[in-house]
């Protein structure tokens, strides 16, 4: 059997339609040029922009393409916006490192998570009581545990306090509804390669002009209506659009299939290892994500052993320069360090099938037994 790739929350393999779109656009002209070749490139970008705008329910000019989610986060997490100024930044306890670093706000504060990995509303209300015009950064779904955050409920409280909500919708895109109408957020950002599009492209999406940052993060020749300088990545944007079109066409059926596959793997894992701890089991989760620990078996060792057996899984976020380090997400959930060190993540995607789901538990059982014997 081919290798089992169960790390789609890190990156999902390129969908065939996205690959075709990228190849077709590699020789495209510069989208800022006014000749025919430039206009053809511009059309690819504007078609992609309109596709995203229609899905999220905004005008096309409120969609800004970036080099990915990290740049998008740095773009939107700014104190000075066109229509207001935010004085401090509140950061959900499970946020991705690209969100959690502060971004130039005078004051930042972490909002705790509960034991199931969802935002702690008691802590949120307390911190809002000491905030003026706050910005809350809250992901739609966690990249490590798959736990879906109550963004709409949090947004209602933040808006009462005169604040703004920025939602990292990277893991939610194509898996659960993350449009403005569902989240109540003011700003969203997404990434192409999590849904089977090319790496190196993402988007910041604004609900209205007032919440666009007053100054561009990347300055240059005025591309993206002055919101993001630099020659546009025509091939990347075209591939992103192709992947997203496929997601829109297949999304519901694909997620139903992956939820069933995830649930089967979870049941098999907990049957062969009764000591297994599933993180976020009491909360709504992404249909493709399973985070669990086998106490006593270090994640770093288990990930390496499974890799040798032909299985690619993760110990959490892939955005730490290849390091296996302590999970800030699990720490915020109150998970003891000795359990957090054993945390694994399976994240499924469009190519995964039932045969792979059947094969994985027996491989895990074999590796687990070998590690226990050595111990």
Notes on the structure:
This protein is 37% helix and 13% strand. It is an alpha/beta fold. The protein is built from eleven helices and twelve strands. The chain starts with a strand and ends with a helix. Strands 2-8-7-6-5-3-4 form a seven-stranded mixed beta sheet, with helices on both faces. α1 (16-25) packs antiparallel against α7, α2 runs parallel beside α7 and α7 (234-272) crosses α11 (354-374). β6, α6 (180-183) and β7 (187-191) form a beta-alpha-beta unit. It is globular. The protein has two domains: 4-12 and 251-374, Aspartate Aminotransferase, domain 1 (Alpha-Beta Complex), CATH 3.90.1150; 16-244, Type I PLP-dependent aspartate aminotransferase-like (Major domain) (Aspartate Aminotransferase, domain 2, 3-Layer(aba) Sandwich), CATH 3.40.640. This is Cysteine desulfurase. InterPro entries: Aminotrans_V_dom, Cysteine_dSase, PyrdxlP-dep_Trfase, PyrdxlP-dep_Trfase_major, PyrdxlP-dep_Trfase_small. Keywords: Iron, Iron-sulfur, Metal-binding, Pyridoxal phosphate, Transferase. It catalyses: (sulfur carrier)-H + L-cysteine = (sulfur carrier)-SH + L-alanine.
Using only CA atoms, what is the Rg?
21 Å
Q: For this structure, what is the CATH homologous superfamily of the largest domain?
A: Type I PLP-dependent aspartate aminotransferase-like (Major domain)
Structural class: alpha/beta
Enumerate the spans where pLDDT stays under 50 for 5 or more consecutive residues: none
Mean of pLDDT: 93
Order of helices and strands: EHHEHEEHEHEHEEHEEHEHHEH
Q: Characterize the largest beta sheet: strand count, sense, and whether it forms a barrel.
A: 7 strands, mixed
| CATH class membership of the largest domain | Alpha Beta
Strand content: 5-15%
Q: What is the annotated CATH architecture of the largest domain?
A: 3-Layer(aba) Sandwich
Principal-axis shape equals globular
Number of structural units classed as domains? 2
- List the total number of helices: 11
Total count of strands: 12
Strand order of the largest sheet: 2-8-7-6-5-3-4
Q: Span from first to last CA?
A: 29 Å
According to CATH, the fold-level topology of the largest domain is: Aspartate Aminotransferase, domain 2
The helix content, as a percent range, equals 25-40%
Organism: Rhodoblastus sphagnicola
GO molecular function: cysteine desulfurase activity; iron-sulfur cluster binding; metal ion binding
Cofactor: pyridoxal 5'-phosphate
Protein name: Cysteine desulfurase
């Amino acid at each position: 059997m081919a290798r089992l790739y169960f790390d789609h929350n890190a990156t999902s393999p390129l969908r065939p339609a996205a690959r075709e779109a990228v190849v077709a656009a590699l020789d495209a002209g510069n989208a800022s040029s006014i000749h025919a070749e430039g206009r053809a490139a511009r059309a690819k970008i504007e078609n992609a922009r309109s596709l995203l705008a229609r899905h999220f329910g905004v005008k096309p000019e409120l969609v800004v393409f970036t080099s990915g989610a990290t740049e998008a986060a740095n773009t939107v997490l700014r104190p000075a916006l066109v229509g207001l100024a935010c004085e401090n930044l509140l950061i959900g306890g499970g946020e991705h490192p690209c969100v959690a670093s502060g971004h130039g706000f005078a004051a930042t504060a972490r909002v705790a998570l509960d034991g199931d990995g969802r935002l702690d509303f008691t802590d949120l209300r307390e911190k809002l009581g000491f905030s003026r015009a706050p910005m809350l950064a809250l992901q739609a779904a966690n990249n490590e545990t798959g736990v879906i955050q109550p963004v709409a409920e949090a947004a209602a409280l933040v808006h009462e306090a005169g604040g703004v909500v920025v939602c990292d919708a990277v893991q939610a895109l194509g898996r659960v509804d993350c449009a403005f109408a569902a989240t109540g957020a003011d700003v969203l950002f997404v990434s192409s390669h999590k849904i089977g599009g090319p790496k190196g492209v993402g988007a910041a999406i604004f609900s209205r002009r007032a919440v666009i940052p007053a100054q561009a993060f990347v300055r240059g020749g005025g591309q993206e209506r002055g919101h993001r300088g630099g020659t546009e990545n025509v091939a990347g944007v075209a591939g992103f659009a192709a992947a997203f079109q496929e997601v829109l066409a297949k999304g519901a059926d694909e997620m139903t299939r992956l939820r069933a596959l995830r649930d089967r793997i979870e049941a098999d894992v907990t049957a062969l290892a009764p000591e297994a701890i599933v993180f976020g089991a009491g909360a709504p989760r992404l249909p493709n994500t399973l985070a669990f620990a086998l106490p006593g078996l270090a994640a770093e060792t288990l990930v390496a052993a499974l890799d040798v057996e032909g299985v690619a899984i993760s110990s959490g976020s892939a955005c730490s320069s290849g390091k296996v380090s302590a999970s800030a997400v699990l720490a915020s959930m109150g998970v003891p360090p000795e359990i957090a060190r054993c945390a694994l993540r399976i994240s499924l995607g469009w190519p995964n099938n039932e045969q792979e789901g059947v094969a994985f538990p027996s491989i895990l059982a074999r590796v687990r037994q070998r590690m226990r014997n050595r111990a």
